[in-house]
Amino acid sequence: MGFTSCLKDYFLGFWDYETPKIMVVKNMTLGVIYRVVQFIVITYFVWYVFISQKAYQESETRPQSSVYTRMKGSAVRGDEILDTVEYVRPSEGGDVISAILRREVTDGQKQGTCAEYFGVTNANCTSDSDCIKGEVDFNGNGRRTGRCIQYYNHTFKTCEIQTWCPIEDYAVKREPSLVEAINFTLFIRNSIYFPKFGALRGNIKDASNRRTMHKYLNKCLYDEEKEPYCPNFRLGYIAHQARENFTELCRTGGVIGVFIHWDCDLDLDLSRCKPKYSFRRLDVRKDQANSGYYCRFSKYYQKDGVESRTLIKAYGIRLDVIVHGQAGKFSPIPTIISTVTALTSVGICTIICDWIMLTFLDKDDVYSESKFDEVIDEPTEFIPPQLLYITSFSSYQSDLSDGVPL
To answer: Could you say which of 48, 178, 370, 381 is the most buried, measured as most Cβ atoms within 10 Å of its Cβ?
Structure first.
C-alpha cells in the first residue's frame, strides 16, 4: 500500500510546474562570489571561445596539400666533387628526402663463397660437422656450404657461406663525415587548398617578374621575421631548430620532421595567411641502441666479365615534410550556437551561489523557506445559481431582523 501511494505521489508530482522566484539576498560575501563567477564565465566565452578559438567561424580542417623538395649544394671529398646525385636520395623528392652525411663502403664484392663473420651466432667452428649445409642464419650474411674454413687471414675458423664476397663486416671502409653538409640547403615548395572556401595558398611569395623571382630564390634563406616566404632552409638551421647536434647526426643519422602549419583567417586579407615552420626529431633519441637513420644501396658494374658491386651503407638525415592546416570564415550558424551557449552558461553562477547559500551560510533555513513556496491548486466547490439566490435571500432577511439598514 505504501509503495502504491509513493508511486501515485511521484506520478502526480511529475506534472507539477516549477517557476523561478526572484529573491534579493543582502549578503556581501554571496554577492562577491556571484559577481566573480559571473566575470570568469563571461571572460572565458568572450576571450577564449570567441576571440581565441573564433567560435563565430565555420572551419575547414582537412585541406589538400602538395609538397615538392629539392636539395642544393656541393662538397669536396679528397679529389672528388660531390653533387646532389651523390648525396641526396631521391635527388628530387616529395614530402620525404634524405641527405647522406657519412658512408661505409665495401668495394669489389662478387658472388662466391667466403667465411662467415665471426660475430654471427654459431658461426665459429672447429670442423665441418659444426656447419650444417644449406642452413641460413637470418642474422648472418648468406647460406652455409657445410665447410669450416679459416676466417680470412686470422687463425680461427668460421663456417663458409655462399654470398657476396668479401662480406661487409670484414672489408668495409669507413669514410669521414661530410661536415660541409651543414651549409646544404633544402628547397620546399608547398601549396595548400581549402575546398570548402575555395582558398589556395603557397609558401612562395607571388611575383609578376619571373626572372626577379628566380634570382630571389637562388639567394634567399628562410628567416621567420625577415624572409617568411623564402623556401630555402640550411641543414644546419634545421638541426639547430630541432635541438640536435649536427656532428652527432653525421655520425648516427636521424629523422627530422619539418612541420608546416597553416592557420588562415579568411575574414582578413588572404595575403595574411602565412605558413609557420617547426622542426622536431622523430626517431628514437640518440642514446638508444636503435636510434639514427641509415640505408644500404649498391652500385653494380662488370669487371673481367664478372658482375661486381660496391655496397654502400649510408648514414644521413631523413627529412619528413608534414603539412597541417585549418581555415575559418564567419558564419551565422556557429555564431548563434556559441552565443546561446554563452548565455546559458551564465546560469551556472546562480546555481553555484544557491548551493552556497543553502549549504554553508548561517541562515540557510531562513533562505530555504523564503526561496521555495508550494502553491496547491485546489478545485473551487461549484454552487448552483438557485442555491446562491436562496443563500443571498436568507442573508437579506437576517439583516432585516437584526435592524441593519439596507
So the answer is: 178
Instruction: Kindly give, in sequence order, each residue whose CB lies less than 8 Å from that of residue 319, ignoring residues fewer than 6 positions away.
Output: 69, 96, 97, 98, 99, 186, 238, 255, 256, 257, 258
Supply the CATH classification number for the domain 64-106+174-330. Answer: 2.60.490.10
What is residue 386's predicted lDDT score, i.e. its pLDDT?
Answer: 53
Query: What is the pTM assigned to this prediction?
Result: 0.74
Decide which of 63 and 81 is more confident: 63
Environment class of residue 161 by beta-carbon count within 10 Å: exposed (0-12), middle (13-18) or buried (19+)?
buried
Domain residue ranges in the chain: 2-55+331-385, 64-106+174-330, 117-166
Q: How confident is the model at residue 28 (pLDDT cuts 50, 70, 90)?
A: confident
Q: For 2-55+331-385, which CATH superfamily applies?
A: atp-gated p2x4 ion channel (1.10.287.940)
Q: In the Cβ-directed half-sphere of 227, how many Cα atoms lie within 13 Å?
A: 11
- Asked whether 96 and 320 are in contact (CB, 8 A), the reply is yes
Which residues contact residue 405 at a Cβ distance below 8 angstroms, ignoring those fewer than 6 apart? Answer: none
